Amino acid sequence: MPVVTFDLADGSRQRMIIDTGADSMIMTSSLATEGHLTTRPSDISATDATGTAHGVPIALVTRLQLGGATFEDFDAITSPQLFAGVDALLGYPLWRDVLLTIDYSNRVIIIGRGALPPPDGKTVLPLRFDDRNRLTLPVTINDRETWLNLDTGWGVGGILELTAAHAAQVTWASAPKPTIATNAANGAIAEKIGRLGGDVKVGRYRFTEPIAGTNTGLGADILAAAGIANFTLTLDLRNMRVRLDRANADPIRSGPVYVSGFDCDLRGAPMRVLNVLPDSGADRAGLRAGDLLLKIDGRPARDGLFAHNGGDFVVELSRDGLPMKLAFPMTTLVP
Question: What is the value of pTM for the model shown?
Answer without folding.
Answer: 0.85
